[in-house]
Amino acid sequence: MCMKTALITGITGQDGSYLSEFLLAKGYDVHGIIRRSSVDYRERIAHLEGTPHFHLHYGDMSDSMGLVQIVGKVRPDEIYNLAAQSHVQVSFDSPEYTADCDATGVLRILEAVRQNGLEHSCRIYQASTSELYGKVEQVPQDEQTPFHPYSPYAVAKLYGYWIVKEYREAYDMFCCSGILFNHESERRGETFVTRKITLAAARIAQGKQTKLYLGNLSSLRDWGYAKDYVECMWLILQNKRPEDFVIATGVQHSVREFCELAFQYAGIHLRWEGEGKDEKGICVSVSDNLRDMDLVGKVLVEVSSDFYRPTDVVNLWGNPAKAKRELGWNPAKTSFEDLVKLMVESDMEKVRNEVILGHARTNLAEYLEKGIVK
Ligand code: NAP
Ligand code: F7E
Description:
By secondary structure, the protein is an alpha/beta fold. It is built from 11 helices and 17 strands. The structure holds NADP nicotinamide-adenine-dinucleotide phosphate (NAP) and ligand F7E. Ligand F7E binds near residues 182, 191, 194, 255 and 307. NADP nicotinamide-adenine-dinucleotide phosphate binds next to helix 1 and strand 5.
């Protein structure tokens, strides 16, 4: 069988790294676009670099000439457009950059495919998002739910969604959006709420942090496991027809619940007191191994207005029935409890190996192994 070629933008990100592993295991030749950075430390894909069928190209979503060249050189059968300024809160600070990367960037990819004459051979997956539902008009949300974007990030992604639909209809291209609800993992960026919580729980349990500051604890999300979600990206491109799909677990939890469970897996039991910005998470008991740490009675979680957004999306809950029915995808593979547990366990291990080198927090064991630090 002829080996398929995939091009992934955003290959260094959480999803890009899992998707690379998934496609390599399926026998694909995998190409990825990376940005030039002063520190070439590509943690999530370091284990793949130098392996057969894994290739990297320098490029940027803001540089159409570069994208046209890469697509022309690689001539992919499938493109997974995952690159984005993906942090919602940051999009309020950098709205123009977010629009350039997350909106116009999608157009650049579509045009790069057309300009290389690949519009009828190359299938394109666009990383769309539940943030499109924003100030929600229906709960739970499915493919028919009206969009109401509620951040510069969501507005940019809405353009991406519509331009993909437009190119599908205008030029008969096989391009689709996966409307993915939040998905997390051990590789999630450290400033997204789940990873921020699991890292803090691990550090507090090991005496390396005293308190965790969060924003809106009542915000509700449908959290899945990133490793399960990349399979769906692939399934969407293997479908008979180019269509958009909602990818979610169908189960909803609050930030507060995530926090309580993560601390519990780290051996710390919390009780909540107060409301709104005065709410606090207090340690009521600890597991036997943490007995001598003097945590009981202490306030470990506080609310800080620094993490409130000018407009916040507070009620995301997806209905994955179409993906289940038409793609045969299983939304219940990893439960919420298993997801929180695997993230906490991974961070407990990471924190154990963590040291301070200069201003950077680094993993000494890994650095020593690679010979970077003698
Ligand atoms: P992520 O970890 O933040 O990764 C983003 C990737 O995009 C990184 O590889 C990043 O490169 C790259 N990138 C950013 N700006 C770029 C630019 N100007 N040019 C080229 N590459 C650029 O995000 P993720 O969680 O894997 O999410 C993947 C995609 O799915 C994103 O489009 C995101 O918006 C979307 N999405 C995510 C979720 C979720 O819950 N994770 C849900 C729905 C949709 P660097 O490493 O160089 O920064
Ligand atoms: O926030 C609340 C915050 O930053 C989740 C991206 O992958 O998923 C992600 O966007 C909720 C929000 O993810 C803190 O206000 C409370 O309501 O983890 P998050 P997000 O904004 O949902 C979507 C689907 C994407 O497409 C995006 O690319 O948690 N929250 N306290 C907090 N959030 C953060 N980051 N930090 C806090 O301290």
